[in-house]
Structure formats: structure tokens, C-alpha cells
Amino acid sequence: MENPEISRDSSVNAAFVKFSEKQDDEGIESFPIERSNGDVIALVHFTNSGKLFGLELLEADTQLPFS
């Protein structure tokens, strides 16, 4: 994959930025990004081999440079 793909679900104010493909047999490990109050605002997803797979934005209206 040359360029990241961005998909958006405005009904839940979320977006997903996909950076790479994964193999069918490859798992994904996710890590939350939290505000200081504990609210999760994003998730970073890596394949089991350590490659960055995607970034899930949970407040897309304010996190993306475009709306």
C-alpha cells in the first residue's frame, strides 16, 4: 500500500487511517491512547509482526485537519 486509506463513519464521529495490509493469518494488537482523564480518544493498531496497520480516531471531527 503506497498511501494511507482514510475511511470515516460520521454517525459515530470516528475515522480509520489504514497504513498497510495484513496477511489473512496475521493478528492485530491494539493500544489505546487516552486523555489524562482516562477517556480513550484513539487506538493504534499493529500487526503481530510489528508493522503499523492503522490508527482509529474516536473524535474525528476535532482530530482530522478536514471535516
Structural commentary:
The protein is 6% helix and 46% strand. With 67 residues, it is mainly β. It has one domain (5-63). Strands 1-2-5-4-3 form a 5-stranded antiparallel beta sheet. The longest helix has 4 residues, at 60-63. The protein starts with a strand and ends with a helix. The mean pLDDT is 92.
Rg, please? 13 Å
Structural class: mainly beta
Q: How much helicity do the residues have?
A: under 10%
How many alpha or pi helices? 1
Extract low-pLDDT stretches: none
Number of domains: 1
| Mean residue pLDDT | 92
Largest sheet: 5 strands, antiparallel
Strand fraction: over 45%
- With strands numbered from the N-terminus, the spatial order across the biggest sheet is 1-2-5-4-3
From the spread of the alpha carbons, the general shape counts as globular
The CA-CA distance between the termini, in Å, is 24 Å
Could you give the order of the helices and strands? Answer: EEEEEH
Q: What's the β-strand tally?
A: 5
Topology readout:
Elements: E1 5-9, E2 14-18, E3 28-34, E4 40-47, E5 52-57, H1 60-63
Antiparallel strand pairs: 1-2, 2-5, 3-4, 4-5
Can you summarize this structure?
The chain has 67 residues and is mainly beta. It contains one helix and five strands, in the order E-E-E-E-E-H.
Attribute tags:
67 residues, globular, 1 helix, mainly beta
